[in-house]
Amino acid sequence: MSTPAPRSLAEALRGRDDASLAELLRARPDLITPVPTDLTQLATRAGTRASVVRALERLDRFALQTAQALAVAADPAGYGDLLALMAGDEGDPAVDAALPRALGTLREQALVWGADDRLRLVRTARELLAPSPQHPSPTGLGPTVREATAGMSPGRIQEIVTTAGLPSTHDSVSAITALTDLFGDRRRMTALLDGASAESREVLQRLVWGPPYGQVTADPAPRLRWLLDRGLLLPTAPGTVVLPREVALHLRGGRAHRTTEPLPPGLEVTGTHRPQVVDATAAGQAYTAVSTVEELLKDWHEGGPAVLRSGGLSVRDLKRTAVALDVTEPAAAFWVELAYAAGLLASDGEADERYAATPAYDEWLELPAAERWARLAEAWLTATRTAGVVGGRDAKDRTLSALGPGLDRSAAPEVRHRVLTLLAGLPEGASPSAGSVLARLRWERPPRGPVGQEDDLRGRLAGWALSEAETLGVTGRGALSEHGRALLGAPARRPAEPSAPGGSGTGAAGAGGPGPGDKLPVHHVHVTLEPLSPAEQATASAAAARLLAPLLPEPLDHVLLQADLTAVAPGPLRRPLADTLDVLADVESKGGATVYRFTPGSVRRALDAGRTASDLHAFLAAHSRTPVPQPLTYLIDDVARRHGHLRVGAASAYVRCDDDAMLNEILADRRAAGLRLRRLAPTVLATRADPATLLDGLRAMGYAPAAESAEGDVLITRADAHRTPPRSAPEPVPDGPPAPDATLLAAAIRAIRAGDRASTTPRRQPPSAGGDLPRTSSAETLATMQAAALTGEAVWIGYVNAEGAASQRVIAPIRVEGGFVTAYDHTADEVRTYPLHRVTGVAELAED
What we know:
The protein is of the alpha+beta class. It is built from 33 helices and 25 strands.
């Protein structure tokens, strides 16, 4: 016996197996939050507006076009009718092949139900996609003849039917049916339009692909009058006409869309590089990324910029950061946000709130360079905060600032993952054009919003993802690196196979691989990699770090000193050497090699930090592969000889020196007038200025004073690290409910099936079909309820609600406590809680 056709979406869901229900709940996780009590409630929830909108937004372009075609088709529609709307009268083999997949997607997501001869789009989706004057359909089609003539006078309808060459009828319904049949008949419509003038046909052509509405005057021109008299244009409001859907479909050759896109666009290859070159380029950029984040937080070592009252960095502080890192402001915003997403940077939470490194930064510094990069890359891949929107405006027209609120874009992790997945599906070393990647993403998730006003947020996110992946070293020269593939959890590359003579391989350039300008077939880029769980992502990040480690340069323990008071670091330096050199010299240039310059100020900085001249000479001799130049030795000795000869303390401030001639020289110098020094003793000068001002003033005059404590000891002015209290990295803002795991799906399906069996099982009738409510004492009611809860039996109760209305109900008690009974109400098909004092009585159900 054939299975009867489902009469509702709930019946259609009831006919699915558990695997199919699991796919539905996995594709639409909002349906499982909370778990529905049965399949009827699941179907109701699947038809709510918010859920349907969310499901439609996640369809690819062809599946969405299929849903749009069903929205303008008859309800229900046959598969042949749908195919005709998608492929047109001439047919399209690509549409023929792709339509079953698109229809299967709509069925799987419970947007379409019914057999192939009775396809039904859920009512909410039809309302969202069907054309209306307020919301034109993406198909550009207008209302049907029946919809457009609603409210038209019967006399006017008969006039249109007669003018169109149809026999008059006795009622408007049959007249509209005849007119609809005429417009749907290709042969008769062609004959009717043959009688139209060229001007009239031109009017139709202007409206055929939408929008279908036009304006007319009170006295239409002859070309318009001819169309209005035959119903080819129908009035919808004073001065407004519409092209009926049936007429537009005839003029379109039966197509609902001007262009159908059954297949995703391929990716255009702009370059092909050897995998080794890609990996080396990406590794170099990865090391630069680690160094840049380290340099950023080193710049904020003693406390970074202040936090704005509204949160985030000020425009001025972002500019200063960009200058310090020698990057553009958008790039500076990216690095700042990346450090924040990785948990290395946060606000200190103090009264004078400032940004500073977190304790996690010190732990991060101790890791090998490859693992430090993996931490940054993992944070970037999963973060919802988006640096690309910095400088834009929010909904209240406020500027979005780096580290401030309003930067979360829930779709960002998914877009980044999808962009990298597309790159992973390309042949080794192939880099696609950004335009073809964006076109592919627009096909997979069409932009939202009215036609012509789409919000292409995903397109902007994809553009930022491509740029940031290159900056971070996930890609190299536009192609995905091997450690980038590992970060996604993708399989490792296979060795390139040599191409046969005259054949085409998939290796690098020169080995038969794709060349610039080639459009790769769809199947070459149809790769699906699901986002990883946190545990899986940690494993993938560790694998990426292992692949990256051999490609990074080994830290060096030496520099090359030069006679022009510079030192060249031919590569990255080990941390103790780099830290000491940062104090002793100033960075003059960066790149493959870093150039440091020694100056009197930098040497004095090292002496202020507690180093002696002999310490500095020994340090340079131990770490230089070249002899220490004589000018550098003289510079250190000269600064050290003068360093601390003057002593500054608090009087407010004083200067003391054993050489009274030097003090006389200071007093006689006109540049010291602003300090207002006076002699207290032959070897002591005093001033009202504070010690810091006095130190700066004397150093500006060319002296090398040293600060001293109240006990007369030299103060060591070493930079103090400022750290925030322990902070956790910002949590990503999810894009809707998270996808359920297998355990939750299995439990939810069991619960839904159990509830559905309870709600659809034929119920026993209460003892009295229409008699009085049962009456029992409070003690009897409580005892019977408790017994039913233990045995799982259903009982019959009388109930009086808060308004005093009495009713009979059949319930299955689940829990009895606190004066309430929680039970599954078979009458209402849901779980409810009833106060026991409102139950008039309870009785057991009669046996069938």
